[in-house]
Task: inverse folding
């Protein structure tokens, strides 16, 4: 039996996905959460084989949570679901070492088969998405720089970001300054716009 943790913030979508997966004779959803902050604690408690994670979640985003699972629970594989198949997003997913990347509108049997493949260590990424990611420009920012720039894009100030990530305000400013420099941006707002248009955020 493949044990699955499902992270999706929309109740109806989460309920539908849980029902679909539980219809499979070899798959059991053992935990479900609706925010990114709950993923790692739930995974540590339930010990799933596969974490199926929506990329856009309140709290921590899906890729950050997937990275934490990869570091803390390497035996748990990750499958990212998204409604947007943007090349930059796919590249970020690959860089985060997720095991699979699937569009939410994929047929239900494709999701179940992806869970099975990911559970045995195979990589599952839609071929067209993989090709578009291959052709996309490389992001010059580190995962931490992207995380901090993403929080800034959501309107968080330096003090809030520092508190959220347990960093000093000076360290956060240094990361933001590095992002501005690497993107050849005029300022922080310009850096956010460049990263957003390149689909790195």
Result:
């Amino acid at each position: 039996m493949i044990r699955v943790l499902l992270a999706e913030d929309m109740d109806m979508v989460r309920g539908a996905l849980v029902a679909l997966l539980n219809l499979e004779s070899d798959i059991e959803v053992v935990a479900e959460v609706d925010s990114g902050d709950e993923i790692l604690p739930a995974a540590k408690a339930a010990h799933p084989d596969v974490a199926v994670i929506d990329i856009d979640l309140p709290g921590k985003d899906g890729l950050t949570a997937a990275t934490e699972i990869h570091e803390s629970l390497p035996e748990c594989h990750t499958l990212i679901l998204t409604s947007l198949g943007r090349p930059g997003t796919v590249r970020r997913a690959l860089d985060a070492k997720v095991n699979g990347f699937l569009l939410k509108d994929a047929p239900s049997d494709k999701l179940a088969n992806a869970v099975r493949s990911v559970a045995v260590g195979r990589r599952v990424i839609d071929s067209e998405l993989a090709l578009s990611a291959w052709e996309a420009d490389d992001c010059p920012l580190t995962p931490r720089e992207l995380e901090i720039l993403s929080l800034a894009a959501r309107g968080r100030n330096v003090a809030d970001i520092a508190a959220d990530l347990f960093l000093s305000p000076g360290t956060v400013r240094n990361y933001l300054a590095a992002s501005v420099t690497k993107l050849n941006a005029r300022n922080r707002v310009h850096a956010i716009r460049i990263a957003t248009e390149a689909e790195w955020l």
Notes: Residues 169-182 form the longest helix (14 residues). Residues 63 and 112 are 21 Å apart (CA to CA). The radius of gyration is 17 Å.
